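Section: Multi-chain targets

For targets with more than one molecule, the full set of components is provided together so that the structure can be written out for the assembly as a whole rather than chain by chain. Components appear in the order listed by the source. The example entry contains two components.
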Amino acid sequence: MTQTRPTSRLAGFDALFTAHQRHVLAYAMRRTRTPADAEDVAGETFAIAWRKFDVIPAGEPLPWLYAVARRVLANHRRGLGRRERLAALLRVDDVATPMPVGEDRDRPAFAALGSLSPADQEILRLVAWEELGNQAIAAVLGITPNAVAIRLHRARARFAEALARPSAEDDLKYPDASRTSTDVKGTQGAEWKGAGE
Amino acid sequence: MTIPTGPDPIDRLRAADPIHVDDVPDASLARVAARIQEQIMTDKQHDPTVRQPRGPLVWVGSLAIFGVFALAIGIALANGFGAQTPPPVAVVPTPTAEAPAPSDVPVDSGNPAAGGGVASCLVYDPANLPNFDAVLDGTVTAIDGDQITFKVNEGWKGADGTITLTAPQVDVAISGPLPAMKVGERYLVTASGSTISACGYTLDYDADTAATWAAAFGS
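Its structure, encoded as tokens over all components, is:
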């Protein structure tokens, strides 16, 4: 079978979507309250990717997609805030289906994460959940890899400190961070040397 | 600030991942795919560079106009108006058998596993293979529910020795068909996370396609 090399825009987008749809939807699900919200964010992200397909970096499209999803998510949250204020005025309950609740979530870890600033939370999530390296995180956040390394070092220390506090669960400042867990992956990785790193 | 030492706290956060890539619900994926497909189709309809297929009413209208012109010419000739001087040649726009709008939507690439997917799975390009997390030539050694284990004959990316992947809950209308896998059979496989990808990127093995895939990785 002979395949022709030139790829149409549609075929290229199709391949991009096929390869990364799960990653983008997982990114959104980790940061939203309901599956419907996550689908909105992922859908809008890929809609933008379709419109701007020509500028997507060919070699590393995933950080670009995450960066778009991050902006879409910020807009979504602003809209959500307006909706919630309106719902409160009209005394309408939010009937959206929440994310499934897992039995096995590490509540103290979520509480510790929730006690950090949004910027710290996001950089930690990108490392732990999206499994990105400094270069990719830099592309997502629009900062330099060096700045990522510095911010990550500080965020990691603050997270460790929050985890060590006995009342970490009471420190939850950002309820969105207490997203429930439906899957717990095995813990693995090198020992952390803390300040000596 | 007290800097604790010990296990990397990020490992604990990693373990608390709310949803792993492989556990993203297929129903959610399908809804996102449907939304994107709608977006693409809408964009194409409004793309001024793309000539749209003509609807049936346009053809009926054209034929009606043609008929009126033909009738008028016929009546004129029957009344002898054309007997003295040759009538000017009436250039009547005739409907031509115009092909549907040129579009890069379903173009058959010859991919035997291709099917109708999110944005048409009819076209694929091996140049996109490096975007997947795992790309391999493998022989199925075991099937346990939706878990399929392959002996890796050639692992171009993310696969070596043996690998167990998850068969997706495939809706062929969304992501195209997958070959029906059997123990002992050989396939060319891609995976996103550890979920086998459909959409024409997982195929029955054939040497030519394998060579094309190898070339996509420069081997």
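Residues 1-7, 175-197 of chain A have pLDDT under 50 and may be disordered.
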